[in-house]
Amino acid sequence: MLLAAVVTARAPAQQLPGAPLDVRVVVADDTILLPAERYPLAVRVTRAARVVATVSRGDAPDSVVWRSDTLAAARDAAIAWDLRMLGGAAIGSGPYTVTVVASDSSGALASARAVLMVNRLRPDTMPIPPPLTSAQLEPEIVVVGHTTPTAILIGTAAALVPSLLGRKELRAARAGDAGHWVVAGGVTVLGFAAFLTSRRLGFSAQNARRNAETRARHAELVAEIEAANALARERVGYRIWREGGAP
Fold first, then answer.
1. What CATH number is attached to the domain comprising 85?
2. Among 74, 65, 55, 52, which residue's Cα sits nearest to residue 5?
3. Is the Cα dihedral 205, 209, 211, 212 positive or negative?
4. Which domain holds residue 46?
5. Are residues 42 and 103 in the same domain?
6. Residue (of 103, 124, 102, 104) closest to 113 by Cα position
7. Which residue has the higher pLDDT, 7 or 169?
8. Number of domains present in the structure of the chain
9. In this predicted model, what pLDDT tens digit does every residue of 189-223 receive, in sequence order?
10. Rounded Cα gap, residues 42 and 30, in angstroms
11. Which of 51, 125, 126, 242 has the smallest set of CB atoms within 10 Å of its CB?
């Protein structure tokens, strides 16, 4: 993104005949800027000239990531870099080289450079909740009862066994008629078998509704935190210092 730079001009100082064109770029030793702020580049030339500033990555000096407009400077010029690249994306951390080129009406050229160290400050973000686990959800497939007439009949018979065991006929069987015990025990076993086989797996609509509500609340919470984190990353600022200055 190209920005219109603000230029402040002073009356040019009287130059000696044949004095060479010279340019200097002055940057802050150490500063902190918000994303909406611009980094100032002060340019000084020895006589009236046109100046343009470019910014490239320190590890790729031939790859220009930002370029200013060409400005007419009488002596001093102020150029503002919006800390974005040509495509509009925000810059990342790392070294950047600022190059200012000046040219006058005679075709003379002069250039100056400054290396900046850029550190994107750490945003204050919140952790994203982990995905829901099965322990946080209700089981949707549950064991349900399914009573049949046969199960009722056999279960009733099994329930009567304890009372039958108290009758005199069965008490007499204790003395030696094992057949009565076999019949009584068989009825009891059949009663429990009927109970167990009368139960089956089924779908719980109530638990499914609760799980849907739980998932919806979890998704809403994740979306809110992600939006807050994105906003925090957009608002995080930069610390920029001149190479050789205070880190």
1. 2.60.40.4070
2. 52
3. positive
4. 23-122+237-242
5. yes
6. 102
7. 169
8. 2
9. 444 454 455 678 999 999 999 999 999 999 999 99
10. 15
11. 126
